[in-house]
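User: For my dataset I need records formatted as: sequence, then structure tokens, nothing else. Please produce one.
Assistant:
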Amino acid sequence: MEEQVKSMEEVKQYLNSCLSAKREVEQLETDIAYFRAEKMSVRHTLDGMPRGSDHKDLSDYIVKLEELEKKLLRARYKRVAIYTQIFDQIEKMEDDMERELLTYRYLKGHTWEKVADEMYLSYGYCHKVHNKALEHFASVCTSSTERVALEL
């Protein structure tokens, strides 16, 4: 029984990796927008003293921003790969309701309340379907010829 609980936790962790990847992309996008806006704001010191060029500061800034943009691109590729892999496995499931529930919850990131509303289910029944869906998803993953690792 304990092994089955661990397996279900691994399945949930694997399914949640899609939302984690989405949050990582969103955070990087927010960071890049913030740094661009911050650098665009003009900051002058009006004390009358001569200043040197901050050319080096600007080029360092551009290099760091480009590194952040490359990291964002890698995160986007990772997100798409994870999403596609999970989507393909969910599509292999036989039960339409279970597929729909896992899609709403793990690919679209809906709350349990919203999942229940979208599917016209009670909150409790939604969790019952979810538990069955996790079991079936785990069997789809382990019986697949690809033998998808349920690890991050």
